[in-house]
Amino acid sequence: MSQVKKFWRLLPLLAVMTLMLTGCGDPTLSALVPKGPVASEQLFLMKLSLFIMIFVVIVVFAIYVYVLVRFRKRKGDESIPKQVEGSHVLEIIWTVIPILLLLVLAVPTVSYTFKHSENYNKNKDAIHVKVTAHQFWWQFEYPDLGIATAQQLVIPKDKIIAFDVVSADVSHAFWVPSLGGKVDTNPGIRNTLYLQADEIATFQGRCTELCGASHALMNFTVAAKSDADFNAWVAKMKAPSVVPANAQKGEELFKENCMSCHAVNAAGPGVAPNLKGFADRDTLAGILEHTPENIASWIHNPQELKPGNKMPAFGKEAGGKLDDAQIKEIVTYLQTLK
Ligand code: CUA
Questions:
Q1: What angle do helix axes 292-300 and 324-334 make, rounded to 10 degrees?
Q2: Residue ranges of the domains in the chain?
Q3: Spacing, Cα 207 to ligand 1 middle (Å)
Q4: Which of 86, 178, 313, 325 has its CB 3.0 to 4.6 Å from that of 35, i.e. a possible disulfide?
Q5: Is the beta carbon of 211 within 6 A of some atom in ligand 1?
Q6: Which residues form the Cytochrome oxidase subunit II transmembrane region profile domain (predicted)?
Q7: At how many degrees (to 10) do helices 248-257 and 324-334 cross?
Q8: Among the atoms of ligand 1, which is closest to the Cα of residue 212?
Q9: Could you read off the pLDDT of 85-141 as tens digits, one per residue?
């Protein structure tokens, strides 16, 4: 079959693939839809390098095609074109142009790289957040506010958020595509970065370093709020929880079974996600819809939903000690953690 025919046969397949790729654009998970100054500047660098590359490709191919056509052997013409090997002028031209292009690329790249890794920890106006990556969840501590949360980072919009990122176990990487990044989280090494959100919205975050069985499920969210809503959230996190009568049985079961790992107070980081404010989060375990059914199946057998995580199964059928009614009581209690 001729190459041309093969191409036409492949065309519908390429069209379908293009159509499928258009489904990949989640505006809350795209470095191409920046929602903060850091992400905007990083997008500018991406575009700059892309345009320079396109320019180089076009110029090189134009010269290539011109030379192919202009100097091809013609019937009756046995002459050899003028040889340019060792031409100083040409060598200087094709050395200087790339140097200039690299300078155009290097100056903004180096300056933004230093700017984006600037340590804002001493800045009084910045909100400080310590990020600790765990297999396979994220802990967010606000040392100046005395609160800690997990899986959903809450930030005020238009404020610089100064991050210290570390890992509790293996190497992970912290990335919020809409806001900028990313940075590795390594055990024993503290990395810093800052981000800022221009918009009130919830953005997606991802772990971008292969870190184990559930690497692909190690998601988190970033809720950017107005100043007033952020302050209200902080106040709510600090306020003591009130457990309604119908959730007291669940609270007791929670204390017996879950509290050795999970904190439910404002400042409690721990070996498992702090569940204070749990009921207000958008997702469960970073990946599931926040519904009572999903919470129950998570407690029943977390390994089925996020393989390799550290939480044991509590459901009787999965080898745990809680029956469905007891799990339901705990779910009722967890839903009061607003
Ligand atoms: Cu954590 Cu990948």
A1: 130
A2: 35-72+82-122, 127-338
A3: 4
A4: 178
A5: yes
A6: 20-120
A7: 100
A8: 2
A9: 889 999 999 999 999 999 999 999 999 988 887 777 777 889 999 999 999 999 999
SS3 104: helix
Two tokens, residue 317: 């059928």
Is residue 206 within 8 Å of residue 181, measured between CB atoms? Answer: no
Ligand 1 centroid to residue 274 C-alpha, Å: 19
pLDDT given for residue 218 in this prediction: 93
The Cα diameter of the chain in Å comes to 102
Could you tell me if 178 and 28 are in contact, meaning their C-beta atoms sit under 8 angstroms apart?
yes
Cβ of 172 less than 6 Å from ligand 1 = yes
Question: If you measure from the C-alpha of residue 139 to the centroid of ligand 1, how many angstroms do you get, rounded to a whole number?
Answer: 13
Q: Measured in angstroms, how far is the CA atom of residue 216 from the centroid of ligand 1?
A: 7
- Ligand 1 atom 1: the closest Cα is on which residue? 172
Q: Which CATH number is 127-338's, of 2.60.40.420, 2.60.40.10, 3.40.50.720, 3.40.50.1440?
A: 2.60.40.420
Confidence of residue 234 (pLDDT cuts 50, 70, 90): very high
Nearest to 296 by CA among 286, 310, 285, 307: 285
218 Cβ below 6 A of ligand 1: yes
| pLDDT level of residue 285 (50, 70, 90 thresholds) | confident
What's the DSSP call for residue 97?
A: H
Q: Per the structure block, which two tokens stand in for 110?
A: 């180096």
Question: Is 182's C-beta closer than 6 angstroms to any atom of ligand 1?
Answer: no
Distance (Å, whole) CA 103 – CA 292 = 56
262 lines ligand 1 (CB under 6 A): no
